[in-house]
Structure formats: structure tokens, C-alpha cells
Design brief:
The structure holds two protein chains of two kinds. By secondary structure, chain A is mainly alpha-helical. Chain A has two domains: 1-228 and 393-428, no CATH class; 236-375. Chain A contains 17 helices and no strands. Chain A has helices spanning 5-11, 20-46, 61-85, 95-116, 125-128, 135-167, 175-184, 192-225, 237-263, 272-303, 306-315, 320-339, 346-372, 384-387, 393-416, 422-426, 431-434. The two termini of chain A are 22 Å apart. Chain B folds into three domains: 1-31; 32-131, Sandwich (Immunoglobulin-like); 140-196. Chain B has helices at 2-18, 25-31, 154-195, and strands at 35-44, 47-58, 61-64, 69-75, 80-87, 93-98, 110-119, 123-131. In chain B, a hairpin with a 2-residue loop joins strand 1 (35-44) and strand 2. Classes of the chains: A mainly alpha, B alpha+beta.
């Protein structure tokens, strides 16, 4: 397969040679990762006593991070699937990023479950003695299924690019990398038949990962929804979580677009139009997300069930700042920034995305922690410091390690594959072939 | 060395104090009398009766234990279910009507326990017997499908199966597509080589 030389050179900045900047950035993230590993060793050695989790709050940062990363993954799947299915013209430079968000987040997310489990030696019991009635079993099945589906979809989207890199004679890479492209491209040469087969498979998988993303994230939401805990036992948690996930994923996509554009000078490919389009998507989702948030809290507040009232009081006292940031600032500010054309610049849209993403993480925090601090059956004579949750440095370290691994995996992928899909960028109107 | 001597003196002092009857738990046990508790389970015209008799042996003679309380209970999964308390009469005997609605095991067997507990004179003594007095109850959750039994409701199995079959069916389609691409590529390559 042939492709424009400039396109290949521009979109594969790290494949041939590794820049000093790449090494420095990678080692900074690696340092965070090493600190996280040190924290993990401490936790394994001394037990969960080194975390802030106690008898009441048995889910802390780890579960917050798990939900957050899984949300990013599902939103990546939804965004890339929808962009692919609707053949949106402007999708081409950003669809690869959405696909990578999906897979990388999905790989990182479950590790936070492992950090949270007290008896990791019993992890295999989940597979040996599953009960279909348990939402945990649903989640295990769903995550495994989703992981495999996302890998297949990502691989399908890489085949054409691998074929281009295999056939690009001027590519100066190590022989093992050439061999890798040869194996992974499956001998794809872009014949009409091959293109049809690949396009059909991609379309089927794009549709599937949209459906799976919705179901899987709903399953995660149902783990909370089916639990009789104040604040969690809600019928709208499924769609609420899905919308929240897309909100965070859209925010992350904008941030990644800004980073890649800046670092690799992709101004020609990722333009203001892309930022505005994804930004408008963020605003629309912010409106839905705000609506779900308001609806959820309004019904709880108006219902005046004792424990719900106690929880809402707690949110507006102990968690006032976080609650306002997550559910007012985090929704309204990004929407306002992007809604007015006057404010729509690339930096402002990126700032809006950073606010949205941070607010969504905080939103996860105030969904998980205050509820666990408000149990239906308080433990008698419990120590006061066991009721409240405060993360320790180990939880912070492992959280930052998760973010670092996310960045490092993105950087490693950029060493092997184009950061923007070359095949998508050079794709002419091949829809005719499909007809 | 000094510390060891001090410790040895302390331990010796404790042992010496333990020899004083007031502080000697073993001596206290020795002061308790042995009570022999018998339990008779009878059923006449569907009325189940538990009769307990208790006596102690003094100078080789059986002496009824009177005025003491005997508890009747049935051990359950987590604790003992109290059925009643009897006060022994001058003959050392007491009885009560046993309820006929206590769930038993699969075959309706109940273990009935009569016990004198923490008694200042007789300490602890008990008599337990198993009898077919319970209501046969099959607790094994194999009889029906529910959220809380081992067998899941059918709709859950069907829904999960349909969803997984649908999803994995599409995965297999995608995987087969990969093989088709590879096969087509091999054919094209062979054709090109043949032309050469």
C-alpha cells in the first residue's frame, strides 16, 4: 500500500527516531510509576491499613479511579464508534486517539480493583465460582468481553497503517519493527476485496463496541444502583454513568488533541474546526449530564428519605467545595466557554476540557465516598477516624502511577504506530467500492 | 540478670497467691457438685413433652436437685433457640410441652438440649438428644430459582446467553474477516508470483 510521503513523515514522528523530549517525558512518567510501585509494595507488605480505607469507607481512591478510567474507555469506544459509523469527515485526525483512549484506559482501570481487593489470592474465585445473579460477575464478564472487543476493533483500524508502513521503502526502522509490520498487516494490499472485508468488519465492530460500551458501563453503574445505600440506589444511574463517561472522554480527547498538536506540530491536521466540533459535543453532553445530575439529586432531596437527606446535608456541608466544583463549575463553565462563539479558541476549549475532566473525577469521588460515610447501620462505638475517609500518600501515588501508565502507553504506541491514522487521512471516497 | 531475678520472684508470688482458695479457680471447680441431668422425651396424642430430672450423689446416695433452673433450647445455625425454662421441683423433676412448629432439617430431626448453666452449686451440665420432632424443611436452594439461591432465574440466564452469543458472534465475524484478508492476500501474492 502506498501513501503520501509527507503524510507518513508528519504522522509518525517517533517511529524512526526517538527525540530527547520523548525520553525526558517518558522518564518523568516512569518516576511517578516507580513511586506508585513502591507504594504498592508497602501496601502488599503492611496491608490496607496503609490506605485511608477503613470499616465504613471500604472503597476509596482506587474505586474512584476504576470508575473514572472505565468511563474514559467506554467514552472512547462510543466516540470512535459513532464517528466511524457516520463517516464524519472531520473524524479522521482524531479517531485514532479515541480508539487508543478506549484500549489504554480499559487496560489500566481494572488494576485499581486489584489494588482495592483485600484478598487478591482469592481473585480466581470470581471465575471459579461465579454467580450470574451477582453484579460483580456481570462486571467481570462485561469487562473481559469489552477488552477483547476493543482490542479487535483497534487492531482492525491499525491494519491499513501497518500495511502502509510495511510498504514504505524509505522507512528507517529496526528490522524487528519491519517484521512486526509485515506480520500485523496480514499481507493487506488494499485490493477491492480486502478493503470490503476490512470495512465490513470495522463497521460491525464499531456498532458492537458502541452497544458494549453502553451495556458495560451500565453494568458498572448497576453495581451501585442495585445496592441499598443512600445515594446509590437510583434507577437513573445506568444512563447517568454513560453520559458522565462520554463527558469525561470528550474532555480527555480535547486535551490529547491539544497535546499532540502542540508536541508534534500537527496544526495542519488538527485544526480549530476539530476543537470546535468536539467542544460543541462536550457542551451538548454537559447539558445532558447536568440534567441527569439535577434530576438525581432533586428526587433524592424531595423524597426526604432520612438517609438520603443526611447524605445531601453532608454533600452541602463537609463536601460543599467538591460538590459545587463537580456539579456546578464542572458542568456550567465548560458549557459557557464553548457555547459562545466569542470564547471558542483552542486554548479556551482545552481549558474547558480540563475543567470538565477534573470535575468528573471529583464527581466520582463524591458519589463513592460520602455514601460510604453514611451507612444505614452505623457500627457501634466505631472510632471517629474510621468513619471519615482521607487518602494516604500511597493512594495518591498509585493514582498518579495510573495516569503515568496511561501517558507512557500512549507514548509507546507512538513508537510503533501512527498517532493519526494515515489510511483514514488519505482515504478518498471509497464508499463507492462498498456499494 | 537482676531483671530475670525480679521476674522469677514475681512469678513465684503469683503462683503462691493462686494457692489461696479464694483466688484458686481450680479449687473453686473442686467445690462445685456434680449434677446428673436426665431428659425424657415423650409424645402422647401429638403432645410432645420434655421431662428433665436432676440429681446429685452425696455419700453414695442419689439426692434430687431442687429449685434450680434448667434451660431447654434447640441449637440453630448461629445461636441457640430458647424453648423454655424449667424450675426443678422437690423431686428434682420438671416438664414442659414442646412446640410442634419448629423447623427441623430435611428429615425433621431436632436436637434438644437441657442445660443447667453457670450455676453456683452445680456449674454447667447438659443433656442433649436428637429426635424426629421438627417440621421437615428442605433449605437446600435447589427447589426454586431466585436471586438468592444457587440457581439463577431463567430470564437472567437467557438474557446473558443471548447478549454474549450476539456479541461473541460478531467478534467471530471480525476474526474470520482477518483470516479472509490473510487468505486473499496470499492468493494475490501467489497470482503475482505466477505472472512473473
Amino acid at each position: 500500500m502506498e501513501a503520501d510521503k509527507k503524510l507518513i513523515t508528519d504522522l509518525t514522528p517517533e517511529i524512526e527516531k526517538t527525540s530527547i523530549k520523548w525520553y525526558i517525558t517518558f522518564f518523568i512518567f516512569l518516576a511517578f510509576f516507580v513511586v506508585g510501585i513502591y507504594g504498592l509494595i508497602q501496601q502488599i507488605d503492611k496491608g490496607h491499613i496503609v490506605t485511608g480505607m477503613r470499616d465504613n469507607v471500604v472503597w476509596g481512591f482506587y474505586i474512584v479511579n476504576f470508575i473514572f478510567f472505565m468511563g474514559l474507555s467506554y467514552s472512547g469506544a462510543l466516540i470512535s464508534g459513532v464517528l466511524h459509523l457516520f463517516h464524519t469527515g472531520w473524524r479522521k485526525p482524531i479517531i485514532r486517539m479515541a480508539e487508543l483512549i478506549t484500549v489504554i484506559s480499559l487496560v489500566i482501570g481494572p488494576f485499581f480493583i486489584f489494588f482495592c481487593i483485600g484478598r487478591l489470592d482469592r481473585l480466581h474465585f470470581l471465575f471459579m465460582y461465579p454467580r450470574i445473579q451477582s453484579p460483580i460477575t456481570w462486571d467481570v464478564i462485561a469487562i473481559c468481553t469489552d477488552l477483547i472487543g476493543c482490542f479487535i476493533y483497534l487492531y482492525l483500524s491499525f491494519i491499513e497503517d501497518f500495511a502502509i508502513l510495511r510498504d514504505y521503502k524509505d522507512l528507517k526502522v529496526a528490522p524487528w519493527k519491519k517484521k512486526l509490520y509485515e506480520i500485523l498487516s496480514l499481507g493487506y494490499t488494499g485490493t477491492e476485496k480486502q478493503y470490503k472485508i476490512l470495512s465490513n468488519a470495522k463497521t460491525v465492530m464499531a456498532a458492537m463496541i458502541i452497544a458494549i460500551a453502553i451495556i458495560v458501563y451500565s453494568v458498572l453503574a448497576w453495581i451501585f444502583g442495585v445496592t441499598l445505600q443512600p445515594g446509590w440506589h437510583s434507577t437513573i444511574f445506568g444512563p447517568y454513568f454513560v453520559i458522565a463517561a462520554v463527558f469525561s472522554g470528550t474532555g480527555l480527547l480535547i486535551i490529547l488533541m491539544w497535546i499532540f498538536r502542540k508536541v508534534y506540530h500537527l496544526e495542519e491536521y488538527i485544526t480549530k474546526r476539530h476543537f470546535v466540533n468536539v467542544g460543541v459535543l462536550l457542551t451538548v453532553i454537559a447539558a445532558f449530564y447536568g440534567y441527569f445530575t439535577f434530576s438525581d439529586y432533586l428526587t433524592k432531596w424531595y423524597g426526604s428519605i432520612k438517609m438520603d437527606s443526611i447524605l445531601i446535608d453532608k454533600l452541602f456541608t463537609d463536601y460543599y467545595s467538591l460538590f459545587i466544583f463537580a456539579n456546578y463549575v464542572g458542568i456550567l463553565l465548560p458549557a459557557i466557554i464553548i457555547a459562545f462563539p466569542k470564547f471558542r479558541t483552542i486554548p479556551s476549549i482545552t481549558v474547558a476540557a480540563v475543567i470538565a475532566l477534573t470535575a468528573l473525577w471529583v464527581n466520582r469521588y463524591i458519589i463513592v465516598i460520602p455514601t460510604l460515610e453514611t451507612p444505614f447501620l452505623p457500627i457501634q462505638d466505631v472510632r471517629p477516624d474510621w468513619i471519615s475517609y482521607a487518602p494516604t500518600w500511597i493512594e495518591w501515588a498509585l493514582t498518579l502511577a495510573g495516569v503515568s501508565v496511561f501517558a507512557m502507553l500512549f507514548m509507546l504506541v507512538s513508537k510503533i504506530a501512527p498517532i493519526i491514522s494515515i489510511s483514514e487521512m488519505q482515504e478518498k471516497d471509497k464508499v463507492e467500492i462498498l456499494k | 540478670m537482676t531483671v530475670m531475678i525480679k521476674r522469677a520472684i514475681s512469678i513465684s508470688a503469683i503462683i503462691a497467691v493462686m494457692q489461696i482458695p479464694v483466688f484458686n479457680l481450680y479449687a473453686q471447680d473442686q467445690a462445685l457438685k456434680d449434677a446428673i441431668l436426665n431428659m425424657t422425651l415423650t409424645e402422647v396424642d401429638s403432645i410432645k413433652t420434655v421431662t428433665v430430672t436432676a440429681h446429685t450423689v452425696e455419700d453414695g446416695k442419689e439426692v434430687p436437685v431442687s429449685g434450680e433452673t434448667v434451660s431447654i433450647f434447640v441449637p440453630r445455625m448461629f445461636s441457640n433457640l430458647p424453648v423454655g425454662e424449667l424450675v426443678l421441683d422437690d423431686e428434682g423433676t420438671a416438664s414442659l410441652e414442646f412446640p410442634s412448629d419448629i423447623p427441623g432439617g430435611k428429615e425433621g430431626n431436632l436436637e434438644i438440649v437441657a442445660a443447667i448453666t453457670d450455676n453456683s452449686t452445680y456449674g454447667n451440665t447438659e443433656n442433649r438428644q436428637t429426635i424426629h420432632w421438627g417440621v421437615p424443611t428442605d433449605y437446600l436452594p435447589t427447589s426454586h430459582r431466585a436471586l438468592w439461591t444457587q440457581r439463577a432465574p431463567r430470564w437472567m440466564i437467557y438474557t446473558l446467553s443471548v447478549l454474549l452469543a450476539g456479541v461473541w458472534g460478531h467478534y467471530f465475524y471480525a476474526i474470520i474477516s482477518l483470516f479472509r484478508i490473510k487468505r486473499n492476500a496470499d492468493r494475490e501474492k501467489a497470482k503475482a508470483e505466477f505472472r512473473l
